[in-house]
Amino acid sequence: MSEANIEQTPEEKALSGLPDDTPVDLAGVFRDSQIQEILDKLDRELVGLKPIKTRIREIAALLLVDRVRKSLGLMSGPPSLHMCFTGNPGTGKTTVAMRMAEILHRLGYIRKCNLAAVTRDDLVGQYIGHTAPKTKEVLKRAMGGVLFIDEAYYLYRSENERDYGQESIEILLQVMENQREDLVVILAGYRDRMETFFQGNPGMSSRVAHHLDFPNYTADELIAIAKLMLEKQQYRFSPDAEKVFYEYLVRRMQMPNFANARSVRNALDRARLRQANRLFAQHQDTLTKKDLVTIEAEDILVSRVFRDNHPDSNQTTDRE
């Protein structure tokens, strides 16, 4: 039955008959929803990403207005909430998905403030009859909240006729259509691969209303992210170390397998390791608190990124 033919209740008819000049306290509804708290948290957690944050605010505004319209008995189809997040690793897709789940829950579009993050291995079986139970178990766990499928394109392998991923996709499609008021699905992955995935699965593409493309961070944004990460762990750069780490980022961004904030976190972990070894070897009897909290330039300069600065080099991130 179409939305246009749904019979209104007497209460809805009464509300929809309200005059056009009926006052609406949209600001009050926004304040009571406490969405601003989540948006502020997103600003604190993620440096940059202005287009993404703007889009999240737009979606939140749409849902807020839809909620107010319902309170006045104004009929409209339920908004489609399934989404696709594209971008390189370490650009904040999972963090944004978590905050999106909070927004949807506070506005009453999902029952649970829950994000179930999965990959192909959680959904697709290795033999006949194994995939459907795995997929249904994941859906059962995610129902009422948000299902986040990372690297979703791995569900579809057109080159392998005996692959079981298509069975999982078909189950997902049914749930995304028939139970869309009780589950929001967010697909994530590289942009080009997701485009290929949608071309091979037009049914999936038609069910996804919101596409958000996460840009790579700039070097300035990455140094800001690094300083925030260190601050949370009660470390800091010395002035020289900050300059050297910036140069490290400029070089590392030109090399393969760069993963934005994820690579920054890995690099800082190695810098802390080198700092600890330096302190243990040089200053066992004369340490101060400043020594313990400060990352020095020498803790970064020994990185392979400075020794092997070749953009075409195939160095892996765990050897930097």
Automatic annotation (TrEMBL):
<dbReference type="InterPro" id="IPR050773">
    <property type="entry name" value="CbxX/CfxQ_RuBisCO_ESX"/>
</dbReference>
<feature type="region of interest" description="Disordered">
    <location>
        <begin position="1"/>
        <end position="20"/>
    </location>
</feature>
<dbReference type="InterPro" id="IPR003593">
    <property type="entry name" value="AAA+_ATPase"/>
</dbReference>
<feature type="domain" description="AAA+ ATPase">
    <location>
        <begin position="79"/>
        <end position="218"/>
    </location>
</feature>
<keyword id="KW-0547">Nucleotide-binding</keyword>
<dbReference type="InterPro" id="IPR000641">
    <property type="entry name" value="CbxX/CfxQ"/>
</dbReference>
<dbReference type="Pfam" id="PF00004">
    <property type="entry name" value="AAA"/>
</dbReference>
<dbReference type="InterPro" id="IPR027417">
    <property type="entry name" value="P-loop_NTPase"/>
</dbReference>
<keyword id="KW-0067">ATP-binding</keyword>
<comment type="similarity">
    <text>Belongs to the CbxX/CfxQ family.</text>
</comment>
<dbReference type="Pfam" id="PF17866">
    <property type="entry name" value="AAA_lid_6"/>
</dbReference>
<dbReference type="InterPro" id="IPR041627">
    <property type="entry name" value="AAA_lid_6"/>
</dbReference>
<dbReference type="GO" id="GO:0016887">
    <property type="term" value="F:ATP hydrolysis activity"/>
</dbReference>
<protein>
    <submittedName>
        <fullName>CbbX</fullName>
    </submittedName>
</protein>
<dbReference type="InterPro" id="IPR003959">
    <property type="entry name" value="ATPase_AAA_core"/>
</dbReference>
<dbReference type="GO" id="GO:0005524">
    <property type="term" value="F:ATP binding"/>
</dbReference>
<dbReference type="InterPro" id="IPR000470">
    <property type="entry name" value="CbxX/CfqX_mono"/>
</dbReference>
